């Protein structure tokens, strides 16, 4: 087979440039890219939670299990949970002075609860919130507490089964890290895959230039013009 001539190569390049509005948009030259890493969660023999993270990384949020973040910016709510290790803590909301009954009060406290489990140190606790009373002088009074549970119990309770794990999350777990054009829908959820528990979380480091559709359209227009010029020149 003979090699292509210079004319044929020029025509091929010109056609490629003219077709830029067709093949360029899927490349997503500008716009956000999302880089995700994976942490493996497991239960230690003593019931504590182990979090296996890539070196120099940390996961700031795990759905269903609060306060996993080990950064210095420790959430204030975690300190309140820590205060309840040795006994219940009384919480008051002066804005609520009456409820229709104890069951309504318990429903309010249930809705106000964040993640059901919380990590204090390496130990996992189940949060509790019990309605006490509501009156004009104090407001609604609730007892907040925590109860130690095995990490395996918490992981099994909050984990999303493999059949509900997205393809992107499964690929991240398989490869260790991925970069996508779209956010991973089940990021930060505990995912049960291959007899293990994983969390796919977003790496905060920027990976691409910001989205600039005007620049993309201008580059496409320049490509079409250059391709047309080459075709006309060849003719």
Quaternary status? single chain
Largest sheet: 5 strands, antiparallel
Radius of gyration over all CA atoms, rounded:
28 Å
Question: How far is the N terminus from the C terminus?
Answer: 25 Å
The amount of helix comes to 25-40%
**H and E order:** HHEEEHEHEEEHHEEEH
Number of helices: 7
Strand content: 25-35%
Query: Whole-number average pLDDT?
Result: 81
What's the total number of strands? Answer: 10
Content-based structural category: alpha+beta
Q: What overall geometry do the principal axes of the alpha carbons give?
A: elongated
Which descriptors would you attach to this protein?
235 residues; alpha+beta; 27% strand
Short description:
This protein is of the alpha+beta class and 235 residues long.
Give the SSE layout.
Blueprint: H1 6-18, H2 20-23, E1 34-43, E2 49-52, E3 65-66, H3 76-83, E4 89-93, H4 102-112, E5 117-120, E6 123-135, E7 139-149, H5 151-158, H6 167-175, E8 177-180, E9 190-193, E10 196-202, H7 213-234
Parallel strand pairs: 3-5
Antiparallel strand pairs: 1-2, 1-8, 1-10, 4-7, 5-6, 6-7, 9-10
Report what the structure shows.
The chain is of the alpha+beta class. It has 7 helices and 10 strands. A hairpin with a 2-residue loop joins β5 and β6. The radius of gyration is 28 Å and the shape is elongated.
């Amino acid at each position: 087979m003979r090699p292509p001539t210079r004319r044929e190569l020029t025509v091929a390049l010109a056609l490629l440039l003219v077709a830029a509005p067709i093949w360029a948009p899927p490349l997503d030259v500008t716009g956000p890219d999302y880089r995700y890493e994976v942490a493996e969660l497991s239960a230690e023999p003593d019931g504590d939670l182990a979090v296996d993270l890539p070196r120099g990384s940390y996961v700031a949020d795990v759905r269903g299990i609060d306060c996993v973040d080990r950064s210095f910016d420790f959430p204030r709510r975690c300190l309140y949970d820590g205060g309840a290790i040795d006994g219940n803590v009384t919480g008051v909301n002066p804005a609520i002075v009456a409820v229709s009954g104890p069951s309504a009060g318990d429903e309010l406290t249930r809705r106000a609860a964040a993640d059901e489990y919380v990590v204090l140190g390496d130990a996992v606790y189940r949060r509790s919130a019990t309605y006490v009373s509501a009156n004009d002088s104090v407001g609604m009074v609730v007892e907040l507490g925590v109860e130690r549970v095995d990490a395996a119990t918490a992981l099994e309770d909050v984990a999303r089964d493999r059949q509900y794990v997205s393809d992107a999350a499964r690929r991240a777990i398989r490869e260790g890290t991925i970069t996508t054009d779209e956010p991973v829908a089940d990021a930060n959820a505990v995912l049960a895959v291959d007899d293990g528990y994983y969390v796919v979380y977003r790496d905060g480091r920027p990976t691409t230039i910001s989205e600039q559709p005007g620049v993309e359209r201008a580059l496409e227009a320049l490509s079409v013009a250059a391709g047309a010029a080459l075709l006309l020149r060849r003719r």
